Amino acid sequence: MAVVCGTDEAAARLKKLFSEYGLSVVVGDHVTGQETGPWPILVMINRLSEGFLWQELGLTFITEEEIFGRKVHRPAAPRSKVAPFLSSFKELKPGDFVVHTDYGVGEYQGLTHINVDGFETDFLTLRYEPDVKLYVPLYSLDKVQKYIGVEGSAPKLDRLGAPAWAKTKAKVKKDILAMAQELVAIYAAREAQTRAAFTPPDNLYREFESAFPYEETPDQQKAIDDVLSDMQRPRPMDRVVCGDVGYGKTEVALRAAFKAVEDGMQAAVLVPTTLLAEQHFRTFSARLAPFSIRVEMLSRFRTKSEQLETLKGLKSGTVDFVVGTHRLLQKDVVFKNLGLLVVDEEHKFGVKHKERIKEFKKLVDVLTLTATPIPRTLHMSLAGIRDLSIIQTPPLDRQAIQVSLARFGKRVIREAILRELERGGQVFFVHNRVQGIERMADFVQNLVPEAKVGIAHGQLKEDEIEDVMAKFIAGTMNVLVTTTIIESGIDIPTANTIIINRADRFGLADLYQIKGRVGRSREKAYAILLAPADEVLTETARKRLRAIQELSELGAGFRIAAQDLETRGAGNLLGKQQSGHIAAVGIDLYTQMMEEAMAELRGQELSPEPDTQITMRASAFIPEDYINDPSLRLAAYKEVSSVGDEAELRDLADELRDRYGLLPEPAANLFEIMSIKIIAKKAQVARIDASKAMVQITFAEGAKISPERVMLLLKRNKGKIKLVPEYTLQLVLGDESLKTASNAVKKCLQELL
Known about the structure:
By secondary structure, this protein is an alpha/beta fold. The chain is 39% helix and 20% strand. A hairpin with a 3-residue loop joins β25 and β26.
């Protein structure tokens, strides 16, 4: 028998699966027709639409899809990095406040193109007191972050060269170290908790994995691997998986649940709404039932007798998996052997419920799924108290939702509804006040008589909600006037327009979640935010509505969390005590200092990297005719300056080539200079200065460079490299090209590392 599959990964998975059943397997890419039996199982990497029998050889060919079902292939998309989520310059505009690590809070004034000795480059222009400009070179943009402080207090600009900024940083660092000691104690307590480790994936798990009807995206696979790795450790898992609606978080939870149940434990999914419970129940049942796993649900949609039956099953162990609302947290819910708790959108639960979830964390593995992490979750993840995985690859053919802002008016509402109905779609009309919801539904029905309007809100009886949703899902109702009961989990691919009344009254993360109810298919989706005139709105509401419009691209959920910090302020991140520090240095630098303090207290060696100054005889910038949009060009500069290694730099260059075409010479030069900076920072180089036929490399004071290696370098390169005073090497070049200088510098530093 020969099994034909399309990728190396699928072939490796099949080989492992067959081998675990004790079968002989050979992986190859073709059959010549000269072979003779007896045949092992051949796993071939090739293309085949359907299986057939090769009678002369007595060999049956079958495809991977004929065994596991057809997979939907998702095109690879560039993965964003987690670390600079707050530091992105994509939304930075002239007049915004920024923080330079060395000089403090300044005002961003734009990019300035400067010609120095015949060579052109761009600089970031910042204004400081007393009206002094600082020009930041492109290779040093990693020292600059957008300022996000606390609500209602604009920062004061620092004076360039004054000692105040250094004193501020020292005070903040001292207090952060004190607070970090508490966090380290929490971390240590977490590490001290133990439970029996789960077993590694086996053949049954591989079968379950292969039944997934899509091809895993790279970051989704990484999240799955992270979770399985956590489960195989002796300490309980506490991981947050962040990804936009429909990006594959549920499958990550399914893999973890299957592993838990396979190892003889029970698993539970805790969700904030009955509608989401219903949807998860259907999804989990469909995937787990073929493997004889009993899935039940606890929510208002279940009768009393059904709930009692489920409770008995959980206590006796005959129920393997349960999906439920906060009903799961009540005292009468007793598990025989709970091993995994999946929490969907933790921030939707109240204080009492969160306290109960905390109790679970001491005993079982907890996996939290979220589209927009709340500031505290974000902070705990960055500080290393909770582990974090990000899924940022959009589903196949998903389009960004078009967001528009309008005043409440008959024409706007009627046109939006009719546009959707004319293409056979459905509409959500969100009105978040139960008292007036029936009047609003009558208004919509009279405005659009062609529509079939229904109402849904949390004060309806369970069977009434179920009946309305069933009609809407079936398509017998095409406009649903609803409260935010639809905020989580309703997956209706034909609903592709949402109208949100009084959008100014919603939080940014809430708006993002509600907006995510549409755009679940290939159809273009629309979100219309209805709000009063600008002059009536508060400054915070204006910022929020502007942000939801600007952050409408795919995968913006993680950045919404950062933007939410900016609009609400970060004062409540860890209590009032820290708000003054965040106001002083901004959330990004504060987080960076927190990470450094945590590492220091854990005994990790921190070798400070110098901000290497590089002067090369070459024009280095991204031309305007290559990336026209100034904000995208600025974001690209920030990414280039923040890369940590050569592989990341190559990936970024490939990404720009894919988006904008071949790199023009000045842009290629910029990448070459950044390549020099990566190795120079590792070697603790303070400055690199190129003249016509020479490069000088000056090391930072206290750089840990072996004198023996320096002497060996000088001996090998007699006449080409000289050691001169003040920790400096002089390299003589054959010509004055950037490539020659770059190769010479990198070769020299490589020999010293």
